Protein backbone atom coordinates (compact mmCIF):
# COMPACT_ATOMS: atom_id res chain seq x y z
CA UNK A 1 0.00 0.00 0.00
CA UNK A 2 1.22 3.40 -0.92
CA UNK A 3 1.12 6.09 1.82
CA UNK A 4 -1.56 8.74 1.32
CA UNK A 5 -0.32 11.09 -1.38
CA UNK A 6 -1.56 14.58 -0.60
CA UNK A 7 0.04 17.56 -2.29
CA UNK A 8 1.80 20.00 -0.01
CA UNK A 9 -0.13 22.89 -1.45
CA UNK A 10 -3.48 21.24 -0.78
CA UNK A 11 -2.49 20.39 2.79
CA UNK A 12 -1.47 23.98 3.41
CA UNK A 13 -4.76 25.29 2.02
CA UNK A 14 -6.77 22.91 4.18
CA UNK A 15 -4.81 23.66 7.31
CA UNK A 16 -5.01 27.39 6.66
CA UNK A 17 -8.73 27.29 7.33
CA UNK A 18 -8.42 25.85 10.84
CA UNK A 19 -11.39 27.09 12.78
CA UNK A 20 -10.94 29.01 15.99
CA UNK A 21 -13.37 27.03 18.09
CA UNK A 22 -13.77 27.29 21.80
CA UNK A 23 -13.18 24.10 23.71
CA UNK A 24 -15.47 23.40 26.62
CA UNK A 25 -13.69 23.41 29.97
CA UNK A 26 -13.09 19.95 31.36
CA UNK A 27 -12.31 18.61 34.82
CA UNK A 28 -8.72 18.75 35.95
CA UNK A 29 -6.33 15.88 35.37
CA UNK A 30 -5.97 13.09 37.87
CA UNK A 31 -2.64 12.46 39.47
CA UNK A 32 -1.00 9.67 37.42
CA UNK A 33 -0.51 6.31 39.08
CA UNK A 34 3.21 5.80 39.56
CA UNK A 35 2.92 2.03 39.96
CA UNK A 36 4.59 -0.05 37.23
CA UNK A 37 2.54 -2.13 34.83
CA UNK A 38 1.32 -5.48 36.10
CA UNK A 39 2.82 -8.71 34.83
CA UNK A 40 1.63 -10.34 31.63
CA UNK A 41 -1.24 -12.76 31.60
CA UNK A 42 -3.63 -14.29 29.05
CA UNK A 43 -7.11 -12.88 28.45
CA UNK A 44 -9.77 -13.46 25.82
CA UNK A 45 -9.16 -10.44 23.64
CA UNK A 46 -12.14 -8.91 21.85
CA UNK A 47 -14.45 -11.91 21.94
CA UNK A 48 -16.33 -10.51 24.93
CA UNK A 49 -17.87 -7.66 22.94
CA UNK A 50 -21.32 -7.92 21.39
CA UNK A 51 -21.38 -5.94 18.15
CA UNK A 52 -24.40 -4.49 16.36
CA UNK A 53 -25.32 -6.28 13.15
CA UNK A 54 -24.21 -4.35 10.07
CA UNK A 55 -22.25 -4.95 6.85
CA UNK A 56 -19.15 -3.84 8.80
CA UNK A 57 -19.45 -6.58 11.43
CA UNK A 58 -20.61 -9.60 9.42
CA UNK A 59 -18.36 -12.50 8.58
CA UNK A 60 -16.98 -12.61 5.06
CA UNK A 61 -16.43 -8.86 4.82
CA UNK A 62 -13.35 -6.77 4.07
CA UNK A 63 -13.28 -3.22 5.45
CA UNK A 64 -11.16 -0.43 3.98
CA UNK A 65 -10.50 3.24 4.72
CA UNK A 66 -9.61 6.01 2.27
CA UNK A 67 -8.86 9.67 2.95
CA UNK A 68 -10.65 12.25 0.82
CA UNK A 69 -9.64 15.89 0.48
CA UNK A 70 -11.03 19.04 -1.08
CA UNK A 71 -9.97 22.66 -0.89
CA UNK A 72 -11.86 23.28 2.36
CA UNK A 73 -12.89 19.86 3.62
CA UNK A 74 -11.54 16.42 4.41
CA UNK A 75 -13.13 13.10 5.32
CA UNK A 76 -12.46 9.38 5.66
CA UNK A 77 -14.57 6.88 3.72
CA UNK A 78 -14.90 3.46 5.33
CA UNK A 79 -16.29 0.79 3.02
CA UNK A 80 -17.42 -2.81 3.47
CA UNK A 81 -16.62 -5.19 0.57
CA UNK A 82 -17.52 -8.64 -0.66
CA UNK A 83 -14.05 -10.29 -0.93
CA UNK A 84 -15.23 -12.63 -3.68
CA UNK A 85 -16.68 -10.09 -6.13
CA UNK A 86 -15.15 -6.88 -4.70
CA UNK A 87 -18.50 -5.18 -4.89
CA UNK A 88 -19.22 -2.59 -2.22
CA UNK A 89 -21.75 -3.58 0.44
CA UNK A 90 -21.90 -0.36 2.46
CA UNK A 91 -20.08 2.92 3.05
CA UNK A 92 -19.68 5.26 6.01
CA UNK A 93 -18.26 8.76 5.90
CA UNK A 94 -16.33 10.28 8.81
CA UNK A 95 -15.88 14.05 8.49
CA UNK A 96 -12.54 15.46 9.60
CA UNK A 97 -13.00 18.71 11.58
CA UNK A 98 -10.87 21.64 10.41
CA UNK A 99 -8.95 21.72 13.71
CA UNK A 100 -8.16 18.00 13.58
CA UNK A 101 -4.57 16.94 12.97
CA UNK A 102 -4.58 15.11 9.64
CA UNK A 103 -1.36 16.55 8.21
CA UNK A 104 1.83 17.90 9.73
CA UNK A 105 3.13 21.02 7.98
CA UNK A 106 5.40 23.90 9.09
CA UNK A 107 3.73 26.44 11.32
CA UNK A 108 1.41 24.02 13.07
CA UNK A 109 1.89 21.73 16.03
CA UNK A 110 3.39 18.43 14.83
CA UNK A 111 1.14 15.64 16.07
CA UNK A 112 1.56 11.88 16.10
CA UNK A 113 -1.69 10.30 14.95
CA UNK A 114 -2.68 7.41 12.65
CA UNK A 115 -5.00 9.90 10.94
CA UNK A 116 -1.93 11.90 9.89
CA UNK A 117 -0.55 8.71 8.41
CA UNK A 118 -3.74 8.00 6.48
CA UNK A 119 -4.23 11.52 5.14
CA UNK A 120 -1.04 13.56 5.44
CA UNK A 121 1.94 11.47 4.38
CA UNK A 122 3.49 12.44 1.04
CA UNK A 123 6.83 13.23 -0.54
CA UNK A 124 7.12 16.37 1.61
CA UNK A 125 5.76 14.97 4.86
CA UNK A 126 7.01 11.60 6.14
CA UNK A 127 5.10 9.33 8.47
CA UNK A 128 5.12 10.57 12.08
CA UNK A 129 6.06 7.02 13.06
CA UNK A 130 9.05 6.67 10.73
CA UNK A 131 8.38 3.42 8.86
CA UNK A 132 5.36 3.54 6.54
CA UNK A 133 5.16 0.13 4.87
CA UNK A 134 1.74 -1.51 4.76
CA UNK A 135 2.60 -3.93 7.56
CA UNK A 136 3.24 -0.96 9.84
CA UNK A 137 0.47 1.34 8.63
CA UNK A 138 -2.57 -0.94 8.49
CA UNK A 139 -2.74 -1.85 12.23
CA UNK A 140 -2.12 1.77 13.24
CA UNK A 141 -4.96 3.06 11.05
CA UNK A 142 -7.31 0.26 12.16
CA UNK A 143 -6.92 1.43 15.77
CA UNK A 144 -8.60 4.75 14.89
CA UNK A 145 -11.99 2.99 14.85
CA UNK A 146 -14.05 0.91 17.25
CA UNK A 147 -14.76 -2.73 16.36
CA UNK A 148 -18.05 -1.81 14.65
CA UNK A 149 -16.60 1.17 12.70
CA UNK A 150 -19.08 3.67 14.16
CA UNK A 151 -16.61 6.19 15.67
CA UNK A 152 -13.20 7.53 14.67
CA UNK A 153 -10.73 9.06 17.13
CA UNK A 154 -9.03 12.38 16.32
CA UNK A 155 -6.37 14.65 17.79
CA UNK A 156 -7.44 18.30 17.79
CA UNK A 157 -5.06 21.23 17.60
CA UNK A 158 -5.85 24.13 19.92
CA UNK A 159 -6.00 27.37 17.86
CA UNK A 160 -5.10 29.33 21.01
CA UNK A 161 -1.79 27.56 21.56
CA UNK A 162 0.61 25.85 19.14
CA UNK A 163 1.83 23.60 21.96
CA UNK A 164 -1.60 22.31 22.98
CA UNK A 165 -3.57 19.36 21.58
CA UNK A 166 -6.67 17.53 22.77
CA UNK A 167 -8.48 14.32 21.79
CA UNK A 168 -11.98 13.72 20.55
CA UNK A 169 -13.97 11.61 18.12
CA UNK A 170 -16.40 11.89 15.22
CA UNK A 171 -19.41 9.73 14.43
CA UNK A 172 -20.02 8.39 10.94
CA UNK A 173 -22.42 10.52 8.96
CA UNK A 174 -21.99 13.58 11.19
CA UNK A 175 -21.71 17.12 9.86
CA UNK A 176 -18.25 18.39 8.95
CA UNK A 177 -17.73 20.28 12.22
CA UNK A 178 -19.75 17.93 14.43
CA UNK A 179 -16.93 16.60 16.61
CA UNK A 180 -17.08 15.51 20.25
CA UNK A 181 -14.24 17.24 22.10
CA UNK A 182 -13.13 15.30 25.15
CA UNK A 183 -10.34 17.56 26.41
CA UNK A 184 -9.87 21.29 26.70
CA UNK A 185 -7.52 22.24 29.50
CA UNK A 186 -4.79 24.76 28.70
CA UNK A 187 -1.46 23.10 27.99
CA UNK A 188 -2.84 19.63 27.20
CA UNK A 189 -0.41 17.48 25.23
CA UNK A 190 -2.58 14.60 24.03
CA UNK A 191 -1.63 12.57 20.94
CA UNK A 192 -2.01 9.13 19.33
CA UNK A 193 -5.80 9.11 19.78
CA UNK A 194 -7.44 5.71 19.13
CA UNK A 195 -10.84 4.20 20.00
CA UNK A 196 -11.58 1.50 22.53
CA UNK A 197 -13.05 -1.70 21.03
CA UNK A 198 -16.57 -0.78 22.16
CA UNK A 199 -16.29 2.87 21.09
CA UNK A 200 -17.03 4.12 24.61
CA UNK A 201 -13.67 5.81 25.20
CA UNK A 202 -10.73 7.40 23.41
CA UNK A 203 -7.23 6.35 24.44
CA UNK A 204 -4.09 8.39 23.87
CA UNK A 205 -0.62 9.30 25.08
CA UNK A 206 -0.21 12.47 27.11
CA UNK A 207 2.31 14.47 29.11
CA UNK A 208 1.49 14.54 32.83
CA UNK A 209 1.98 17.61 35.02
CA UNK A 210 5.29 16.21 36.24
CA UNK A 211 6.57 15.86 32.67
CA UNK A 212 6.24 12.07 32.48
CA UNK A 213 4.70 10.42 29.42
CA UNK A 214 1.57 8.40 30.19
CA UNK A 215 -1.27 6.50 28.54
CA UNK A 216 -4.68 7.95 29.29
CA UNK A 217 -8.31 7.54 28.31
CA UNK A 218 -11.40 9.73 28.30
CA UNK A 219 -14.95 8.45 28.27
CA UNK A 220 -16.91 9.25 25.13
CA UNK A 221 -19.90 10.12 27.31
CA UNK A 222 -20.34 11.86 30.65
CA UNK A 223 -17.77 14.38 31.88
CA UNK A 224 -14.86 12.97 29.83
CA UNK A 225 -12.69 12.87 32.95
CA UNK A 226 -9.08 11.81 32.37
CA UNK A 227 -8.25 8.28 33.52
CA UNK A 228 -4.58 7.41 33.76
CA UNK A 229 -3.97 3.94 32.27
CA UNK A 230 -0.25 3.43 32.68
CA UNK A 231 3.21 4.46 31.51
CA UNK A 232 4.07 5.48 27.95
CA UNK A 233 7.32 5.91 26.09
CA UNK A 234 6.78 9.34 24.54
CA UNK A 235 4.51 9.99 21.57
CA UNK A 236 6.69 8.24 18.99
CA UNK A 237 4.96 4.84 19.15
CA UNK A 238 1.26 4.32 18.35
CA UNK A 239 -1.37 2.68 20.54
CA UNK A 240 -3.60 -0.33 19.98
CA UNK A 241 -6.44 -0.99 22.42
CA UNK A 242 -8.00 -4.44 22.74
CA UNK A 243 -9.50 -6.85 25.22
CA UNK A 244 -12.29 -6.73 27.77
CA UNK A 245 -11.56 -4.91 29.96
CA UNK A 246 -9.68 -2.77 27.47
CA UNK A 247 -5.88 -2.61 27.62
CA UNK A 248 -3.47 -0.56 25.49
CA UNK A 249 -0.20 -1.71 23.97
CA UNK A 250 2.17 0.98 22.74
CA UNK A 251 4.07 -0.61 19.86
CA UNK A 252 4.05 -1.21 16.11
CA UNK A 253 2.50 -4.07 14.11
CA UNK A 254 0.16 -5.10 16.91
CA UNK A 255 -2.02 -8.07 15.92
CA UNK A 256 -4.13 -10.01 18.40
CA UNK A 257 -4.06 -13.81 18.02
CA UNK A 258 -7.41 -15.48 17.22
CA UNK A 259 -7.58 -16.93 20.74
CA UNK A 260 -6.72 -13.56 22.28
CA UNK A 261 -3.86 -14.97 24.34
CA UNK A 262 -0.93 -13.55 22.38
CA UNK A 263 0.03 -10.43 20.45
CA UNK A 264 2.57 -9.60 17.83
CA UNK A 265 4.31 -6.26 18.34
CA UNK A 266 7.61 -4.55 17.66
CA UNK A 267 9.43 -1.56 19.08
CA UNK A 268 12.90 -0.07 18.53
CA UNK A 269 15.68 -1.84 20.43
CA UNK A 270 13.27 -4.52 21.69
CA UNK A 271 14.16 -8.18 21.10
CA UNK A 272 11.03 -10.20 20.41
CA UNK A 273 7.90 -10.26 18.25
CA UNK A 274 5.30 -12.49 19.94
CA UNK A 275 4.36 -12.28 23.60
CA UNK A 276 1.51 -13.06 25.98
CA UNK A 277 -1.21 -10.44 26.27
CA UNK A 278 -0.96 -8.21 29.32
CA UNK A 279 -3.38 -7.50 32.14
CA UNK A 280 -2.38 -3.84 32.11
CA UNK A 281 -1.53 -1.06 29.66
CA UNK A 282 1.95 0.04 28.73
CA UNK A 283 4.66 0.26 26.10
CA UNK A 284 6.54 -2.64 24.58
CA UNK A 285 9.94 -2.49 26.25
CA UNK A 286 12.80 -4.87 26.93
CA UNK A 287 11.19 -5.66 30.28
CA UNK A 288 7.66 -6.24 29.00
CA UNK A 289 8.97 -8.27 26.04
CA UNK A 290 11.03 -10.58 28.24
CA UNK A 291 10.42 -14.17 27.21
CA UNK A 292 8.90 -13.18 23.87
CA UNK A 293 9.52 -15.25 20.75
CA UNK A 294 11.50 -13.62 17.93
CA UNK A 295 10.22 -14.32 14.42
CA UNK A 296 13.49 -14.89 12.60
CA UNK A 297 13.91 -12.87 9.40
CA UNK A 298 10.49 -11.19 9.73
CA UNK A 299 10.56 -7.56 8.55
CA UNK A 300 6.78 -7.10 8.48
CA UNK A 301 4.00 -8.87 10.39
CA UNK A 302 0.92 -9.27 8.17
CA UNK A 303 -1.28 -11.11 10.66
CA UNK A 304 -2.18 -14.44 12.25
CA UNK A 305 -2.99 -17.51 10.16
CA UNK A 306 -3.91 -19.59 13.22
CA UNK A 307 -3.67 -19.55 17.01
CA UNK A 308 0.04 -20.29 16.87
CA UNK A 309 1.20 -19.18 13.41
CA UNK A 310 2.02 -15.73 12.05
CA UNK A 311 2.38 -14.61 8.43
CA UNK A 312 5.45 -12.44 7.84
CA UNK A 313 7.11 -10.62 4.98
CA UNK A 314 10.69 -11.79 5.14
CA UNK A 315 13.95 -10.01 4.46
CA UNK A 316 14.07 -11.72 1.04
CA UNK A 317 10.77 -10.12 0.01
CA UNK A 318 8.76 -13.34 0.13
CA UNK A 319 6.02 -14.18 2.64
CA UNK A 320 6.19 -17.05 5.08
CA UNK A 321 4.24 -18.59 7.95
CA UNK A 322 6.17 -18.78 11.21
CA UNK A 323 5.64 -20.70 14.40
CA UNK A 324 4.74 -18.18 17.10
CA UNK A 325 6.28 -20.39 19.80
CA UNK A 326 9.65 -21.10 18.24
CA UNK A 327 9.95 -18.23 15.78
CA UNK A 328 10.92 -20.63 13.00
CA UNK A 329 9.53 -20.72 9.47
CA UNK A 330 6.85 -23.30 8.67
CA UNK A 331 6.41 -24.49 5.10
CA UNK A 332 7.75 -23.03 1.86
CA UNK A 333 8.05 -19.30 1.13
CA UNK A 334 5.30 -17.57 -0.87
CA UNK A 335 6.64 -15.35 -3.65
CA UNK A 336 4.35 -12.62 -4.95
CA UNK A 337 6.85 -10.80 -7.19
CA UNK A 338 10.02 -12.13 -8.76
CA UNK A 339 13.53 -10.66 -8.60
CA UNK A 340 13.26 -9.50 -12.23
CA UNK A 341 9.93 -7.70 -11.78
CA UNK A 342 11.46 -4.59 -10.25
CA UNK A 343 8.53 -4.36 -7.81
CA UNK A 344 7.96 -4.87 -4.11
CA UNK A 345 5.01 -6.53 -2.39
CA UNK A 346 3.79 -5.43 1.02
CA UNK A 347 1.36 -7.42 3.15
CA UNK A 348 -1.84 -5.68 4.19
CA UNK A 349 -4.34 -8.07 5.75
CA UNK A 350 -4.97 -11.76 6.55
CA UNK A 351 -8.43 -13.28 6.27
CA UNK A 352 -10.15 -14.45 9.44
CA UNK A 353 -9.77 -18.11 8.42
CA UNK A 354 -6.05 -17.60 7.78
CA UNK A 355 -6.23 -18.98 4.23
CA UNK A 356 -5.70 -15.78 2.22
CA UNK A 357 -4.02 -12.42 2.53
CA UNK A 358 -4.00 -9.13 0.62
CA UNK A 359 -0.85 -7.53 -0.76
CA UNK A 360 -0.02 -4.24 -2.46
CA UNK A 361 2.49 -4.44 -5.32
CA UNK A 362 4.28 -1.26 -6.34
CA UNK A 363 7.59 0.25 -7.35
CA UNK A 364 10.22 0.62 -4.63
CA UNK A 365 9.80 3.94 -2.86
CA UNK A 366 13.05 5.30 -4.27
CA UNK A 367 11.69 4.91 -7.82
CA UNK A 368 8.27 6.42 -7.29
CA UNK A 369 7.29 9.70 -8.89
CA UNK A 370 4.78 11.34 -6.57
CA UNK A 371 3.47 13.56 -9.33
CA UNK A 372 2.20 10.61 -11.36
CA UNK A 373 2.08 7.68 -8.95
CA UNK A 374 -1.20 8.56 -7.27
CA UNK A 375 -3.03 8.46 -10.61
CA UNK A 376 -1.87 4.97 -11.51
CA UNK A 377 -4.20 2.06 -10.94
CA UNK A 378 -3.31 0.18 -7.75
CA UNK A 379 -2.10 -3.40 -7.88
CA UNK A 380 -3.85 -5.17 -5.00
CA UNK A 381 -3.86 -8.96 -4.97
CA UNK A 382 -5.41 -11.75 -2.91
CA UNK A 383 -2.84 -14.48 -2.31
CA UNK A 384 -3.19 -17.90 -0.62
CA UNK A 385 -1.20 -18.27 2.61
CA UNK A 386 0.09 -21.65 1.43
CA UNK A 387 2.14 -22.17 -1.73
CA UNK A 388 0.49 -23.46 -4.88
CA UNK A 389 -2.85 -21.64 -4.84
CA UNK A 390 -4.06 -19.11 -7.39
CA UNK A 391 -3.63 -15.36 -6.94
CA UNK A 392 -6.45 -12.98 -7.91
CA UNK A 393 -6.31 -9.26 -8.63
CA UNK A 394 -8.59 -6.79 -6.85
CA UNK A 395 -10.27 -4.22 -9.06
CA UNK A 396 -12.77 -1.51 -8.17
CA UNK A 397 -12.84 2.21 -8.97
CA UNK A 398 -13.16 3.11 -5.27
CA UNK A 399 -9.98 1.24 -4.36
CA UNK A 400 -7.01 3.51 -4.99
CA UNK A 401 -3.46 3.89 -3.76
CA UNK A 402 -4.69 5.79 -0.71
CA UNK A 403 -6.74 2.81 0.47
CA UNK A 404 -5.89 1.09 3.75
CA UNK A 405 -7.20 -2.47 4.22
CA UNK A 406 -8.24 -2.73 7.86
CA UNK A 407 -10.30 -5.84 8.56
CA UNK A 408 -11.23 -9.18 7.00
CA UNK A 409 -13.90 -10.83 9.13
Q: How are the strands of the largest sheet arranged? A: 3-2-1-25
Secondary-structure content class? mainly beta
Order of H and E elements:
HEEEHHEEEEEEEEEEEEEEEEEEEHEEE
Strand content: 25-35%
**Terminal-residue CA separation:** 20 Å
Radius of gyration: 20 Å
The helix count comes to 4
User: Overall 3D geometry?
Assistant: globular
- Low-confidence stretches are 1-43
Overall mean confidence score, pLDDT: 86
Main β-sheet, in a few words? 4 strands, antiparallel
Share of helix among residues? under 10%
Q: Let me know the number of strands.
A: 25
Task: Characterize the structure shown.
This protein has helices at residues 8-16, 114-119, 134-142, 370-373; strands spanning 62-69, 74-81, 88-95, 151-157, 165-171, 179-181, 190-195, 201-207, 213-219, 226-231, 239-242, 247-250, 252-256, 262-266, 274-276, 282-283, 298-306, 309-314, 319-323, 329-334, 344-350, 356-362, 380-384, 392-394, 404-408. By secondary structure, it is mainly beta. The radius of gyration is 20 Å and the shape is globular.
Question: Which key terms come to mind for this protein?
Answer:
single chain; 409 residues; four-stranded antiparallel β-sheet; 4 helices; 35% strand; disordered N terminus
What is this structure's SSE topology?
Blueprint: H1 8-16, E1 62-69, E2 74-81, E3 88-95, H2 114-119, H3 134-142, E4 151-157, E5 165-171, E6 179-181, E7 190-195, E8 201-207, E9 213-219, E10 226-231, E11 239-242, E12 247-250, E13 252-256, E14 262-266, E15 274-276, E16 282-283, E17 298-306, E18 309-314, E19 319-323, E20 329-334, E21 344-350, E22 356-362, H4 370-373, E23 380-384, E24 392-394, E25 404-408
Parallel strand pairs: 12-16
Antiparallel strand pairs: 1-2, 1-25, 2-3, 4-5, 5-6, 7-8, 8-9, 9-10, 11-12, 13-14, 14-15, 17-18, 18-19, 19-20, 21-22, 22-23, 23-24
Amino acid sequence: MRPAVVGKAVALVVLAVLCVQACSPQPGKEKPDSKPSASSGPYLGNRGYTLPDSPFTRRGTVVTATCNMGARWASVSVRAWDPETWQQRAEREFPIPSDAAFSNVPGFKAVDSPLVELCGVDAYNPSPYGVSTSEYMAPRIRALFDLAFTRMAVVLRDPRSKKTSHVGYVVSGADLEDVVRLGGAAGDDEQNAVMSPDGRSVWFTYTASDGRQRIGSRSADGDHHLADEGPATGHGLPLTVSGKPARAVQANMVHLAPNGRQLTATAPKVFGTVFDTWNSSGPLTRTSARGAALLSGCVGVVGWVGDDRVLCRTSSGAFRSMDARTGRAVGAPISVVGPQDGMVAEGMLVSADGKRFIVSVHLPNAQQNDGDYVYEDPDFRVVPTTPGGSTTHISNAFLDRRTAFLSWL
